[in-house]
Design a protein that fits this description.
alpha+beta; six-stranded mixed sheet; five-stranded antiparallel sheet; elongated
Length: about 350
C-alpha cells in the first residue's frame, strides 16, 4: 500500500497543501487536474525526486519520506520519452537490473519475460529510433516493471499518442492493474482516460485535492462545483430555495422552478449534465419527469456524432443529443421545444 499523509511542498508561489490519499495493492489511482495544478510534483515527491517540507510518505507501511529515490523501489514512467538512444530495446529494459547488480543470465530471463507480457519481444534488438511511439511507451513500462516495484507512477503516459494508440495502450494499462499486485498512481488532465482506467480519482486544483472518491461515484455524484464543471456538468445554476420537505426541494432559478430530491439551504447551486436533458417536440402527456420546461433552440453546435443544443427556457440550458436524433426530430435554431430533466439527475453542489 502507498500512503501519502498531509504532504506539503512550497516552490516559488506554488504550494502543495494537505495532500492525503492512500492506494491499495492492485488499485489504479488517478490524480486528475489541469496543467499547473501540481500533479507531476506529487509524483516527484513520492519518487523522492523532490523534497517535501512536511508530511509523510509510506510504502508497505515503511516510512520512506526521507529516503533517496534508489531506496524506495518506486518505478516512474515520465511523460517525455526517456529511452537511452544508444542502447537497444533489450539494453534499455535491462539497464535497471544491471544497476542493481543482478547476474547476467537472470537479467536476460527477466527482460524476455517482461517483454513477452507487454508484447514487445519482437523489437528487443531494435534501437529506439526504429520503433513507434506506442512501442516506446511499452518499452518504458517494461523497464519500469522489470524491477518488480512496490509502486508504479505514471506521468501522462498517453499524452503524446494519437487516438488509436491511446485506446490500445489504455487496454494494456487496464491489464497491468489486474496482473501486477502493486498500487498504480497515474496523473492526467484527460478525464476520459481517468474514468476508463481508474478505481479511484482525486481531483486536483491549485495544489489541493478538491474531491476524492470511487471513479463511478465521483462521475455520477460530484459534490463540489469545481468537480462538476471539470467532469462535464455543463449546466451549473444558482437559485433560491422556495420550499423544502423530506421529499426534496423546489429551487427558483430566475423564475424557473426545479424540483430536486434533496434538502437544500436558502441559496444553493445545482448542476446537471447536458446528456441528462431530454428534448421533445410536443409536451409529453404521460411522464414521470418532475422538471419540464418550454423553450426555443438558440444554438446548435456539432461535436462529431453528438450535437450540443442550447435551449432558452428563460435561462439557457445545454442539451446533448445524437446527430441521428436531431435529424429524426427535424430540429433547427428558433424551433419551439420542450425539455425534461429527471429530478435524480440534478445535484446540489458546494463551492
Amino acid at each position: 500500500m502507498l500512503k501519502v499523509i498531509n504532504l506539503y511542498r512550497k516552490q516559488g508561489d506554488f504550494e502543495l497543501k494537505n495532500i492525503t490519499f492512500e492506494v491499495r495493492k492492485k488499485e489504479y489511482f488517478v490524480i486528475l487536474g489541469p496543467s499547473g495544478s501540481g500533479k507531476t510534483t506529487i509524483l516527484d515527491c513520492i519518487a523522492g525526486l523532490r523534497k517535501i517540507h512536511s508530511g509523510r510518505i509510506l510504502i508497505d507501511e515503511q516510512d520512506v519520506t526521507y529516503l533517496p529515490p534508489e531506496k524506495r523501489n518506486v518505478a516512474y514512467v515520465f511523460q517525455a520519452n526517456t529511452l537511452f538512444p544508444h542502447m537497444t530495446v533489450f539494453g534499455n529494459i535491462e539497464y535497471p537490473l544491471k544497476v542493481r547488480g543482478i547476474q547476467k543470465e537472470k537479467r536476460k530471463h527477466m527482460v524476455i519475460e517482461i517483454a513477452k507480457k507487454l508484447g514487445i519481444e519482437y523489437i528487443l534488438n531494435k534501437m529506439p529510433r526504429e520503433i513507434s511511439g506506442g512501442e516506446a511507451r511499452r518499452v518504458e513500462l517494461a523497464r519500469a516493471l522489470v524491477i518488480n516495484p512496490s509502486v508504479l507512477l505514471l506521468d501522462e503516459p498517453l499524452a503524446h499518442l494519437d487516438e488509436p494508440l491511446k485506446r490500445e495502450l489504455s487496454l494494456e494499462l487496464r491489464k497491468l492493474r489486474k496482473e501486477w499486485n502493486i498500487p498504480i498512481v497515474h496523473v492526467t488532465h484527460d478525464q476520459r482516460i481517468a474514468f476508463m482506467l481508474s478505481d479511484k480519482i482525486a481531483l486536483l486544483q491549485d495544489g489541493r485535492i478538491v474531491e476524492i472518491g470511487d471513479s463511478i461515484k465521483l462521475f455520477l455524484n460530484p459534490r463540489k462545483v469545481y468537480t462538476a464543471k471539470f467532469l462535464g456538468f455543463e449546466n451549473i445554476l444558482e437559485g433560491e430555495v422556495i420550499s423544502c420537505s423530506d421529499f426534496g426541494s423546489v429551487i427558483d432559478v430566475h423564475g424557473i422552478k426545479f424540483f430536486v430530491p434533496e434538502k437544500a439551504k436558502e441559496s444553493v447551486k445545482i448542476g446537471f449534465r447536458p446528456e441528462d436533458v431530454i428534448i421533445f417536440k410536443e409536451l409529453p402527456i404521460k411522464t414521470s419527469l418532475r422538471n419540464i420546461f418550454e423553450g426555443r433552440i438558440t444554438e446548435i453546435i456539432p461535436q462529431g456524432p453528438i450535437m450540443m443544443l442550447e435551449v432558452d427556457v428563460g435561462i439557457p440550458i445545454k442539451v446533448l443529443i445524437t446527430r441521428g436524433s436531431l435529424e429524426t426530430l427535424k430540429l433547427g435554431v428558433g424551433e419551439k421545444v420542450f425539455i425534461g430533466i429527471k429530478a435524480a439527475a440534478i445535484r446540489i453542489l458546494e463551492d
